[in-house]
Amino acid sequence: MMKAFEDKGSTLVLASGVFDLVHYGHVYFLQEAKKAGGENARLVVVVARDKTVERLKGRPSVLPEEQRRAIVEALKPVDEAILGREDFNVEEILREIKPDIVAVGHDQTDIEENVRRLVSERGLRIRVVRIGRFASTGLESSSGIKRKIADQG
Amino acid sequence: MMKAFEDKGSTLVLASGVFDLVHYGHVYFLQEAKKAGGENARLVVVVARDKTVERLKGRPSVLPEEQRRAIVEALKPVDEAILGREDFNVEEILREIKPDIVAVGHDQTDIEENVRRLVSERGLRIRVVRIGRFASTGLESSSGIKRKIADQG
Hints:
Two copies of one chain form a homodimer. By secondary structure, chain A is α/β, with parallel strands linked by helices. Chain A starts with a helix and ends with a helix. The first copy, chain A, contains seven helices and five strands, in the order H-E-H-E-H-H-E-H-E-H-E-H. The first copy, chain A, is globular. A five-stranded parallel sheet of chain A has the order 3-2-1-4-5, sandwiched between helices.
């Protein structure tokens, strides 16, 4: 599992998310995150634990964590997908994975602030890259998908 | 787009489906479909058109066809994902793509019968491989996912 972290010749990009119902916005985010690392990028994705999702969003994910992780790892831009920490300790994740770049999605402002603060306070050599939104048909978010399913009832 | 079909050195596997809300059952199906073609397999996936989904299932897909296609093509086992024909003419698809193997899912009995009949009637050199079901937690189907979302509603 740790092989991605030992490959010193490449630029290690770290991305994270819940990835509950995979939509094209996820695919776009991960493709752009990988591109941010250039030619020799390796992309490691931390997938949020079920307990973290429930605590932060106030409701459980539709798909269990191991399935969410396996689907993310099946996507072409992803070299490795691992489950996050139940305590959601961002500093600990950065210490373990040692990314060169942390890629954040347009809606991950909390994570972005958290990482930027740690980078500044600890003097870490990590670049934070924000990935723009793909489009806005409303179907590039899990909540948009859920609304459409509910509407179709 | 046609490059997969011109590579004569590999075993061409054809799979098809709607792939509306990607779940681990889809990933498993596509991984096993590719394996059915051995070492040098190429996997081409025909993604059902929106009109076909609406006609066959009596309701529209949640995600539009181009997004469903792009997500399928972003999965590691898939070499190429193309949109199907609006007339859903299986014989025409087989003639265009010339697969060595057609992989069918456990719930694709109509397609399986259709392909087997054509293979028999036309004397085609196509092997039909049925891929078993991954598991049965209920979350390896789009309808299971929709039910869970409705229950959470």
